[in-house]
Amino acid sequence: xxxxxxxxxxxKKKRQRAAVNNRFKLALAGLFLVxxxxxxxxxxxxxxxxxHQVTVPPAEPPDLSLLMQxxxxxLESAMLRSGASLDRLKVAxxxxxxxxxxxxxxxxxxxxxxxxxxxxxLAPDLELLVSDRDNRIVLQKGSKLLFTLIxxxxxxxxxxxxxxxxxxxxxxxGRDVSVAKQAxxxxxxxxxxxLPNERHASEIATLAHRRxxxxxxxxxxxxEGYPAANPGEGALFVDLSTEEIQRRFMSYLDRIPYAVGGxxxxxxxFTTDRQGMHxxxxxxxxxxxxxxxSRTTGxxxxxxxxxxxxxxxxxxxxxxxxxxxxxxxxRQIRKLVVLAGKKGSAxxxxxxxxxxxxxLQQQLPLLNRDGIVVVPVSQLTKR
Length: 383
Prior knowledge:
The chain is of the alpha/beta class. It has two domains: 65-155, Beta Polymerase, domain 2; 165-380, Glycoside hydrolase/deacetylase (TIM Barrel), CATH 3.20.20. 44% of the residues lie in helices and 19% in strands. Strands 6, 7, 8, 9, 10, 11, 12, 13 and 14 form a nine-stranded parallel beta sheet that branches. Strands 1-2-5-4-3 form a five-stranded mixed beta sheet, covered by helices on one side. Strand 10 (290-293), helix 8 and strand 11 form a beta-alpha-beta unit. It is globular. The termini are far apart. Residues 50-61 have low confidence and may be disordered.
């Protein structure tokens, strides 16, 4: 009995020691947790104080220089469409704003509406304030004055076109930036027509615009023989609904924000479809764009429809580079010049081939020598 009692007492003491150990471990764990929480709170408090002590520098005002350049291009384009000569344009800076004195008549309502629309595309808070009583236009961005245009109709002399005028459109741009730069670098007013669904479309349109070149949308349209001849993804087809044609065309305009006009890429089928062309041209009229019929088919009704809708328009006279040979392209350029001499003006279309660029570099200086003026194609459009 004594041994059993001693054994039971020993087990009881072991259980008591184990309980004490467990309570000690729990106490240590509790102390550790409390310590961890205290340290965490201290660190968080320090971080919070540091965060509040950081001084965020005030945002720099946006650089308006590029926007001002874009605006000036749009203003000068509108003045040219009004018949004013930029040769006699006087520009003076007044503080942070600019004043343009124009020897020309005040723009009509249609040109002002087109200009306002184009300016809103550059920045939605640009506002034209028009006063035809004192022949003055004020352009503001919010409350900030940017430009004042003062027109002097008494000094206006209608432009005489004693010299033959030639417009050259460079089609199919948008794929290769380096080639586009070579075309833009030509020291003449070659009009740049950019395919909207190409990878570098927006970049190339912007480069051309910054260099003062006129930019067009090269509108992809369904040709005869599709799909063997393919105008590219997202083109306009005669079996599309009116809503889809409108959606696709407006997406082109989004990709080429500086476009002032458009001409058809392929389109030997689409330009014979009156309903499809009417849909496109109505949008172009609403957006203040002119139209050039590339005349990829003799059956095109595009120019006649544009004239019926009173959209500024013209048509291609000569394709310059159907043959990728420098001398043959040079002959086509001379053919364009002869035609301009007979008609007073002519429109040529070419592509950014290396042979074409070489022929233009060779021939364009000769045009100046012979008294031929190379102009943006918009100057040859009529309603």
